[in-house]
Fold:
Amino acid sequence: MQAPPRLPSDQATLELEQLEAIRRVPVGAAALSGLAVLLLLIAWLLIYLLIYLPRGMIG
Amino acid sequence: MVRNRGLVLAHLWVAFAVFAAASVLGAWQMWVRSPLSAPFAEPQTYFASVTAHGTGMAYVLTTFFVMGFGYFVAETALGRDLPGVRAAWGAYALGVIGAIMAVVTIMTGRASVLYTFYPPMTASAFYYIGLVLVVVGSWIWSAIMIIAMARWKRDNPGQPVPLAMFATVANAIMWLWTTLGVAAELLIQVIPAAFGWTETIDVGLSRTLFSWTLHAIVYFWLFPAYIAFYTMAPAAAGGRLYSETMGRLSFVLFLLYSLPVGLHHLFMDPEHSTGFKFIQSFLTFLVTIPTLLTVFTITASFEIAGRLRGGTGLFGWIRALPWDRPMVLATGLAFFMLWFCGGGGLINMSYGMNAMVHNTSWVTAHFHLIFGGTVVIMYFAIAYEIWPALTGRLPDAVALPSQRRQLWTWAIGMLILTLPWHWLGLNGQWRRVAHFDYADPAIAWWGPWVVVSLIGGVLLVMSAFLFVWNLAQLHEKPKQISAAAAPVAYAVPLHPVARVPAALNGFALWNVLVRVLMIVAYAWPIAPFAVYPSPGAVIHRVGGAG
Amino acid sequence: MSWTEHDVVRSELRWSLAVAGFVAILFALTLVAALALHRNPPSNAERIDPKTLHLTGEFTESNLGTRVEANGQITTRIVATQFAFVPNCVVLPEGREVTLRLASPDVIHGILVAGTNVNTMVVPGYVSQVHTVFRKTGDLLMPCHEFCGFGHSQMWARVRVVPGDQFRPDAQGRASCGS
Structure:
């Protein structure tokens, strides 16, 4: 059994075709992270409006 | 290459052994809380178990893991031997002795004060002294980390400190700052009371000093996970770290904003006014930012990896990632859990909204998911990743699937444990209860959901033991390579930096800012206790003569 | 898009702005709740001596429970002790502003009132004060929600919220669950 094979991307500098492959970055990350944060906002708002506010005053 | 392998392994084995034992206690506690009849379910036993589970998981697993991993990073990221090895072993001895003292006092029923202490309830002095020894050991570790980085900088002038070490030292500095609070509480107030030198204690002051420690301590636990996100996961995925600068910035932001926010643990306390609760709530909103930045930077790093492996389209790169690699799998599971527990944290910190959840099971579920879930799953992944460099033994075709299975069962178990638990908390289930009267129609419907959480807990115990077994198995394998030759693959940034600004390569500026922020946030809340002491509460001794 | 360092920095800045906006929205709504909707952490910072609170002053036993003050304010005083609330049932009217005041002669306790936002710690040495308006009637569970010793699991009280017309204090302004 040997050490796990080193992937082509492990070398320090990227080849031109690799740079081409990652051209769209970070569009996918922005979409995924943005979606996650949007869902967080919606969840927080639902709890704020449907549970927190109806339970009444405190102070 | 790791020269002090024994030192690192000694720390990690203590951490994981205590973790496995404490996990059994956790599952038993959930059994006691459920409608099912559990053995030994007296309150004395239950609350001793809660103290042991909390002390083991929150103080021993964490401190020993952070220390061991820190020594590992200091040698491998800086590429040189650790300074102060004798002091490091001395610190280890202090920590082990302290942990044993704490465990013995708990097991003999003389320290059922829970891991948050709750004065004026007072345990045996030796419980607190045991924990002080663990903390002193960690202070020695902090000094070694700071010295190691300083010496490297002296020998490499103008060079950027490797990110993993920069983050580790940020953690050490944050730890030194944050432990001042609990050290003051224990040394000035609680231990003298435990020895009987004082008859009363100002509980408002002790809670405030403890709150000083309370938030940054969870970031102390969290830093290894974030170090793995930035410096190990992108490499394991076969990609690049999208931005090393953002990594440095995030760790600096954690150092600044995790400290002056402890009052958010005291939102419901009567001894503080709304003014400072509000200021610290605002600062807590700021400490969400480095996590949100991290989410994007690491996702982008994974996107690079996925696209390099042929993934296309808006989300196609996700499937293309090497999910068979434990570090990659753990990162994905950690981020999935982070949505839930990060969201829960947003609720907890939202000032008045805290009233909706304070001291309910929502809080307990939250920190189990965020610490037990997102953070500890990365502890597992780090262990799997660095074990070859520590032992010279590599996982084989059998070991990797078992590691993945362990990670999956941990994440699934955590979600089954905590999601219903959050829901019950939102519906008013309160904390630290050894026995619920399920005959009461108001709470009878909770019973089945507690059983669901119990099932999650049982799954977690199985996963915890599988984790230990996986590591033990690695020791059984024949030595294929010398540990010196084992690869330690720190992530390469997309744009390697030749120079970084001094502010992102050292902590002189940030230490000044931390001092300013702590004075702004805590000077006024603490001053009244010194200037105008409140009538003290009478000491209540727990166990023994009490 | 992400070939150059400049592009990386620009994308991170854009994300930072989005994140800052998200946090700002949450903060703004929290501020609205605090300033306009009367939702604040209870924080009156008032001291009391736990060793003598049962002997003199506000928290002597005959003064506990619900009382309508001379100025019309409705105040309920409760002592939290190991392991019971005194009194363990209080009656309050729906729809009117009420004030709960709690103190402890011994260790830390805490309360929540199920189905409401009423929540506070009870710290020996300090008086806890909570203002609220109950929006629905019924027998609400008020457990001790902070670990206070081995009897903690059995420590709770009830808050009986009655419709306004059924809230009938006596000549001294006192109302209790028995009446």
About this structure: Chain B has 16 helices and four strands. The beta strands of chain B are 121-122, 200-201, 537-538, 540-541. The first helix of chain B runs from residue 5 to 33.
